[in-house]
Q: What sequence folds into this?
């Protein structure tokens, strides 16, 4: 889709970005609901894992909203959230491989998101690529 | 939960997923029939959640009660959200958005089928 006006940056929520926001929204809501249930009913069983679930949920929420808003400020916020997401999935994924005892309960990032078809691992990479693709300087095509 | 109804949801959701991807491949936004089909998937999904919640109210206790209730509520939001998001910018990508929602309904229904296990006596 092209607009009649030359724009400083493509909206992160437009075109294929539509799909990205949708997938982020699925993870934001699922992770929030899961974290809510975990923290509300069985927090003492695995406090670290369940707190991480809540952190992951918060990161997904921020990424979803900022990608959908598409303003310059939101773009920076999205970049920070998605970088944190990438660090989170890599760290938790690696820790859960080598120290299963620290993660007795599955979080969305355990084993690099194996429980969700590794989408949690692929999503931040796609998110960063999409931010790069839509950044202001890259869009000089009239 | 009624297993038969869950299987109906699974089939309908899978069809909606394929349909969404198909319109993306042929570079079209979702058509009227496709949107109506999504609404039917949503209706059956809501019916499934209502029946399950009535069962819970009548005393059925799955092993993970909180998670089960969460799934029964969250599963009904995907298609309405996708409907709005897909129609607010109608391109080929709208179909993929519908597919993402339908696939979420599919995945959550699969999980609900295993969650719907009674607490051992």
A:
């Amino acid at each position: 889709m092209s607009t009649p006006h030359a724009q400083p940056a493509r909206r992160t929520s437009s075109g294929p970005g539509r799909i990205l926001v949708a997938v982020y929204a699925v993870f934001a809501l699922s992770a929030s609901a899961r974290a809510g249930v975990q923290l509300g009913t069985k927090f003492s069983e695995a406090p670290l894992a369940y707190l991480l679930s809540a952190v992951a949920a918060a990161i997904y929420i921020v990424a979803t909203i900022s990608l959908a808003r598409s303003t310059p400020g939101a773009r920076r916020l999205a970049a920070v959230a998605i970088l944190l997401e990438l660090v989170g999935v890599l760290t938790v994924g690696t820790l859960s491989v080598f120290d299963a005892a620290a993660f007795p309960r599955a979080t969305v990032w355990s084993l690099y998101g194996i429980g969700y078809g590794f989408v949690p691992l692929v999503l931040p990479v796609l998110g960063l690529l999409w931010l790069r693709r839509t950044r202001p300087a890259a869009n000089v095509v009239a | 939960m009624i297993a038969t109804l869950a299987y109906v949801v699974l089939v309908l959701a899978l069809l909606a997923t394929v349909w969404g991807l198909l319109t993306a491949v042929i570079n079209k936004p979702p058509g009227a029939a496709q949107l109506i089909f999504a609404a039917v998937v949503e209706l059956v999904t809501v019916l499934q959640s209502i029946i399950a919640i009535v069962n819970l109210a009548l005393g059925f206790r799955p092993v993970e009660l909180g998670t089960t209730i969460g799934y029964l509520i969250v599963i009904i939001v995907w298609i309405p959200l996708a409907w709005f998001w897909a129609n607010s910018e109608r391109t080929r990508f709208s179909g993929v958005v519908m597919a993402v929602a339908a696939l979420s309904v599919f995945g959550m229904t699969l999980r609900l089928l295993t969650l719907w296990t009674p607490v051992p006596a």
